């Protein structure tokens, strides 16, 4: 009953995230072509039962003119998306600056910017001002589309100031906030100059969600230590008002991957790849080219493995797909050259006239090619230095049928909490340990592979993205209903 909207109609859900799930390309003054990114989050949210979802966010393009904005708004409406227009200056300060140069590294334990990344304190303050202004712009768009009874689900570190903007506007809005990154230990979080304002804003939400119990615990500790509030088993209490805090581990739409493996195009790719790498074991890495993904460390571990196991030199290949991301942020530019330098050196050292040990691609792959790669590879290396969840590990497991490939997984990825029993867990900073794990994975007896795979496959196919989204929305409705009951008693 609580889940349904008025008179049995579907409840409206407004999903607010920095980025819309579309890529928009301008084809003329008033013409846009749109491609919806069919990722896990999108299908999860569109598949939630009894809910009518719309998405509010930035389309990732600068549209300074009104004609272009009107045309894009109209085109997006057909995809159930509503744009927030951000100009270049605000993107620079809010997205490249505060979100990706300050919050992102801090939340992944890489610390606050040092001198070369942060010129002056004033720079920090102007970026935080831009962050708040951008969050207010998202809030303004929410107000325009909000109807009483709607559920508003804010996503990620870009929008920590949004719950406050929304509740200041209308205290009765049902607001949830979910973080897709880790929430770090309070000892790390408390170095953030704007620590108070952000915590207070997030606490304005009715329900706050994280991928793992540890992240939720860190958040509650930050609230008790920094704000002096009371942590309870339910969440955080401030003057009689409770903000519920809980873990909601995300999943993927595993059926979509299973179905893809039956498609002729994917089967063709699988055949081509199998022939291309015949006689060699294939290891795979698929990551955004981000410092949190530990790509240089992974490649150095592979080098150590080759060094210590010369008999494997022409019998194994590492395919590393490194998807370019946030290319305007200097740290990401430096990482690209660092990775290229290491790959070049190792290929020069161990390559032969006919084969190289590392195939490194600086680009994304289409969905079919990706599924085929997941299906044919013997070992996946997911060795993030820190990662909120990491769904590549889930996608790999979903695409491994009879092959029963081995997953090497960082203990610092949220996914280690759910796939830990099936994967080989590693500390990605320990290159020797990762090199040994590569050897273990490549030589693992088939009954052990089978046992490990069975565990992971059962988890990935039963804890789906749709369950995750449904549970969050249900709990949010429930939390608000209970709070209402309490105030009436
Ligand atoms: C992470 C974040 C997402 C973000 C994605 C891609 O997964 O949690 O919010 O959308 O990275 O990054 P980008 O900066 O390209 O949106």
From TrEMBL:
Keywords associated with the record: Glycosyltransferase, Transferase
Reactions that this protein is recorded to catalyse: D-glucose 6-phosphate + UDP-alpha-D-glucose = alpha,alpha-trehalose 6-phosphate + UDP + H(+)
Superkingdom of origin organism: Eukaryota
Enzyme class: transferase
Catalytic activity, EC: 2.4.1.15
Gene Ontology MF, one: alpha,alpha-trehalose-phosphate synthase (UDP-forming) activity
GO terms of biological process kind: trehalose biosynthetic process
Family indicated by similarity: In the C-terminal section; belongs to the trehalose phosphatase family.
Official protein name in the record: alpha,alpha-trehalose-phosphate synthase (UDP-forming)
Organism annotation: Zea mays
């Amino acid at each position: 009953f609580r889940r349904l909207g008025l008179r049995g109609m579907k409840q409206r859900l407004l999903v607010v995230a920095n980025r819309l799930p579309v890529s928009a390309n301008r084809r003329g003054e008033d013409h846009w072509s749109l491609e919806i990114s069919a990722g896990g989050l999108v299908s999860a949210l569109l598949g939630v039962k009894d809910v009518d979802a719309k998405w509010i966010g930035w389309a990732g393009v600068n549209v300074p003119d009104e004609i272009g904005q009107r045309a894009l708004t109209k085109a997006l409406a057909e995809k159930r998306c509503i744009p927030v227009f951000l100009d270049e200056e605000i993107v620079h300060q809010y997205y490249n600056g505060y979100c990706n140069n300050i919050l992102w590294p801090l939340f992944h334990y890489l610390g606050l910017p040092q001198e070369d990344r942060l010129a002056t304190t004033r720079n920090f303050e102007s970026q935080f001002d831009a962050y708040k202004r951008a969050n207010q712009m998202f809030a303004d768009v929410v107000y325009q589309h909000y109807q009483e009874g709607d559920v508003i689900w804010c996503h990620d570190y870009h929008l920590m100031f949004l719950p406050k903007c929304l509740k200041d506007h209308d205290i009765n809005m049902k607001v949830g906030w979910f973080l897709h990154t880790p929430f770090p230990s309070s000892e790390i979080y408390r170095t953030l100059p704007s620590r108070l304002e952000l915590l207070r804003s997030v606490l304005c939400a009715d329900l706050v969600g994280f991928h793992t119990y540890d992240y939720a615990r860190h958040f509650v500790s930050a609230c008790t230590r920094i704000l002096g509030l009371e942590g309870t088993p339910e969440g955080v209490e401030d003057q009689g008002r409770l903000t519920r805090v809980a873990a909601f581990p995300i999943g993927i739409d595993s059926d979509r991957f299973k179905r893809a493996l039956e498609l002729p195009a994917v089967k063709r790719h699988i055949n081509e790849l199998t022939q291309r790498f015949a006689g060699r074991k294939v290891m795979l890495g698929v990551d955004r080219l981000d410092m949190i993904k530990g790509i240089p460390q992974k490649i150095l571990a592979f080098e150590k493995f080759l060094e210590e196991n010369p008999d494997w030199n022409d019998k194994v290949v590492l395919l590393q797909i490194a998807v370019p991301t946030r290319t305007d942020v200097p740290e990401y530019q430096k990482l690209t050259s660092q990775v290229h330098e290491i790959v070049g050196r190792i290929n020069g050292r161990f390559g032969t006239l006919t084969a190289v040990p590392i195939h490194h691609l600086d680009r994304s792959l289409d969905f079919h090619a990706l599924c085929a790669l997941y299906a044919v590879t013997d070992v996946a290396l997911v060795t993030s230095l820190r990662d909120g969840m990491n769904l590549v590990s889930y996608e790999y497991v979903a695409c491994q049928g009879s092959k029963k490939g081995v997953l090497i997984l960082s203990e610092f990825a949220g996914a280690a909490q759910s796939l830990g029993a099936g994967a080989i867990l590693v500390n990605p900073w320990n290159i020797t340990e990762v090199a040994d794990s590569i050897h273990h994975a490549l030589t693992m007896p088939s009954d052990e592979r089978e046992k490990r795979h069975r565990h992971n496959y059962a988890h990935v196919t039963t804890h789906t993205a749709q369950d995750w989204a449904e549970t969050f929305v249900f709990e949010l409705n429930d939390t608000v209903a209970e709070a209402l009951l309490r105030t009436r008693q």
